[in-house]
Amino acid sequence: MIVIYRQISPSDKRVTAVAFPGSADTAQYVNLTGERILLRAAPASAGECSQAAAGPFIDRTIPAGSLGDADGGCWCCGPAGGSCVPSNKTGNGKAFLVNCFQ
């Protein structure tokens, strides 16, 4: 199990997702936030997500309680109609999204 955090301030971080590597053949994301979300993916650069902010992006809207996937080496989630920077590495398995940040 992997816990994915988002740094909110220098002294505060919040959980974005809980992931289970290898539990699915692709990168799957279950939206448990209670709202529609944006799932954004982008290619990794040399195995890193530091350049993913440049895109190109693959955006998907995932309704509350639904499953989506991410094509690309990096991902993020934000409010539907919003934006985010793909700074998390993708991997085969299932992640349960509990908070998404702009």
Account of the 3D structure:
The chain is mainly β and 102 residues long. 0% of the residues lie in helices and 49% in strands. It has no helices and 9 strands. The chain has strands spanning 2-9, 12-21, 27-31, 37-42, 58-62, 67-69, 74-79, 88-89, 93-97. Strands 1-2-9-3-6 form a 5-stranded mixed beta sheet, with no helix packed on it. A 4-stranded antiparallel beta sheet has the order 5-4-7-8, with no helix packed on it. A hairpin with an 8-residue loop joins strand 7 (74-79) and strand 8. It is globular and about 35 Å long. The two termini are 25 Å apart. The model has no long low-confidence stretch (mean pLDDT 92).
Relevant terms:
single chain, 102 residues, mainly beta, five-stranded mixed sheet, globular
What structural class results from the helix and strand content? mainly beta
β-sheet strand percentage: over 45%
Report the helical percentage: under 10%
**Rg estimate, integer Å:** 12 Å
What is the topology, as strand order, of the major beta sheet?
1-2-9-3-6
User: Termini distance?
Assistant: 25 Å
Approximate shape: globular
Q: Spans with pLDDT under 50 lasting ≥5 residues?
A: none
In round numbers, the mean pLDDT is 92
Succession of helices and strands: EEEEEEEEE
Number of helices: 0
- Major sheet size, sense and barrel closure: 5 strands, mixed
